[in-house]
Amino acid sequence: MDRENVFGEGAVCRKKEDAEGNLTIMKKQLYGASEVSASIRRMAEAICREFSGGEGDLALVGIHKLGVPLAKMLEREIAAISGKHPEFGTLDITMYRDDFGDFSRLPAIQETEIPFDVNGRKLILVDDVFSSGRTIRAALDALTDFGRPGMIRLAVLVDRGEPEFPIRPDFAGFSLKVPSDHKIRLCFDPELEIYEIPTAEERAAVGNETSTPLK
Amino acid sequence: MQWTRKDLLGLYDLSAEEITLILDTAEEFKKVSQRRVKKVPALRGKTVVNFFVEPSTRTRVSFELAEQRLSADVVNMQAQASSLLKGETLLDTVRNIEALQVDLVVMRHSAPGAQNFIARNLGCGVVNAGDGAHEHPTQALLDIFTMREKLGSVKGLQVAIVGDILHSRVARSNIWGLLKLGAQVTVAGPATLVPREFESIGVRVCHNLDEAIRNADVVNLLRIQHERQTADFFPSIGEYSKFFGIRPDTMKKLKPETLIMHPGPINRGVELAGEVADGKNSVILEQVTNGLAIRMAVLYLVAGCVQK
User: Which residue of B37, B43, B47, B104 is the best one to mutate when testing the A interface, meaning the one whose CB has the most A CBs within 10 A?
Assistant: First the structure.
């Protein structure tokens, strides 16, 4: 792993080298650890402002996979601000997807754990990146199978702003416009960051330009 | 681990990783049946035909419920009502089913390998619900799931399977699955029903119950199927019960936490005394509950691999 400015404009990029010394995987860092942490704190503050006084029945539900650790971080921030720990649950939406049978890789089912009564409760769904809204559509179906929540809000770290459904996040850390065939990923390890992955062709092109073998 | 099969025909074909994937998937499907809405839309728009050429009640009901809880559309076909009686071949019957744009066929047949033959000739997925004395994969998977759930891990477990091993598809599927996951298997029963040949596949063969169950973590009892040919294999049901039946006094010879399992239906007082079937070591009804979760997991995984 090495860092090198290949995207221009001082962008922090990472690349990997295969056995033949070809640079193949490139990603551009959009936000680093301090920016992401600050953004999560601002989201927690916004949630606390909107739900001030009534935190008692607030619950966070993280959507697998990366919505779960993100929801954990939000939960800690909310507890630090309000002094109360919201209830915490996790949701896997695989069984509720609208594209079953269309994917070549059947996604492994993760654990769904809703250890509280959802009836009448204020729920905040948490996911890392919001794009089409299809994941959230599935999550709403999944959640309402557990009961009748009083209210459901959506918090995401990155809003890509390309909804295919009439669904929008209520709390968003960052709003980003990137080409729709690029991927945006949240990463927790080795450090907290948000990065952008261009298409395979673009990555290969960049890789060839700077084909200095890595040490 | 990635599931890539459109059929589930037997545990002989599966790797330890594939078996573990089914068990892990079933854990999440088990929770679905504990929710307020006991149903997920995973197989919405898919059609499943339960084609039982050999009669079955509990396995068919379990499959049918599993299909309904996955939101599939379900059709049941029984041999008595099918055109097999009018002289149609088995392959023609299932080809006619497939021509109705069916996605999955769950099939039971008395001929070993019938499902393998059908799966080779059909584009839709095939799930084996029992083929002769060959395999009954979902029963073995629910047995293994129950062992793993109760005892933590299957690796290193001592499992005794007692009864008519010779004619039992449940025993064979259990043997393949348990050996792959690293358990040690003992098969026990009268010599006529438990031939020494089973040693060649890596299980211990025992003709003495006490010896078979002494260190067992699990005792899985098979029903003596007196409607089948087994009547000629030992002098009387009473004698079988005396030598191989589990009674309250047998329990004293077992480790205190040993699981008592039975695929059902139980013949109380033959292979298993009522007090033991209802006792604290028995997990027989939990097996039934887990069967539903296992069948949901299998149908879900297999349906994801059927080409449209």
Answer: B37
**Pick among 3.20.20.150, 3.40.50.2300, 3.40.50.300, 3.40.50.2020: CATH of A33-97+107-191:** 3.40.50.2020
Confidence band, pLDDT 50/70/90 cuts, at residue A162: confident
Name A85's Cβ contacts closer than 8 Å, sequence gap at least 6.
Answer: A75, A78, A79
For residue B109, list its beta bridge partners.
B131
Question: Which DSSP string do the residues of B124-192 spell out, in sequence order?
Answer: SEEEEEEETTTB-HHHHHHHHHHHHHHHS--TT-EEEEES--TT-HHHHHHHHHHHHTT-EEEEES-TT
ipTM of the complex: 0.72
* pLDDT at residue A9 greater than cutoff 60: no
Phi, psi of B135 (to 5 degrees): -145, 150
* Amino acid residing at B32: V
| Domain co-membership, B282 together with B192 | yes
Task: Provide the strand spans (E) within chain B.
Answer: 47-52, 73-78, 104-109, 125-131, 158-162, 184-188, 204-206, 218-221, 259-261
The span from the CA of A194 to the CA of A40, in Å, is 12
The number of distinct structural domains making up chain B is: 2
**B218: buried, middle or exposed (CB in 10 Å: 19+, 13-18, 0-12)?**
buried
Quick one: closest CA in B to A112, which residue? Answer: B28
**Is the residue at B266 inside a domain?**
yes
CA distance A134 to chain B (A): 14
Provide mean pLDDT across the span A39-58.
84
Q: What is the rounded distance in angstroms from the CA atom of residue B11 to the CA atom of residue B19?
A: 8
Strand arrangement of the beta sheet that strand A193-197 belongs to: A2-4, A12-17, A23-31, A193-197, A183-187
**Residues of chain B that touch chain A, judged by Cβ-Cβ distance less than 8 Å:** 1-3, 21, 24-25, 28-29, 31-32, 35-37, 39-44, 46, 300-301, 303-306, 308
- Asked if B24's CB is within 8 angstroms of A108's CB, the reply is yes
Phi, psi of B222 (to 5 degrees): -105, 150
In this structure, the number of other CB atoms found within 10 A of the CB of residue B285 comes to: 11
Radius of gyration of chain B (CA): 19
Each residue of B87-103: pLDDT tens digit?
889 999 999 999 999 99
What residues of chain B score a pLDDT lower than 50? none
Question: Which member of A96, A106, A147 has the closest CB to residue B304?
Answer: A106
Beta strands in A101-197 (DSSP E): 122-130, 151-159, 171-175, 183-187, 193-197
Measured in whole angstroms, how far is the alpha carbon of residue B171 from the centre of its chain?
8
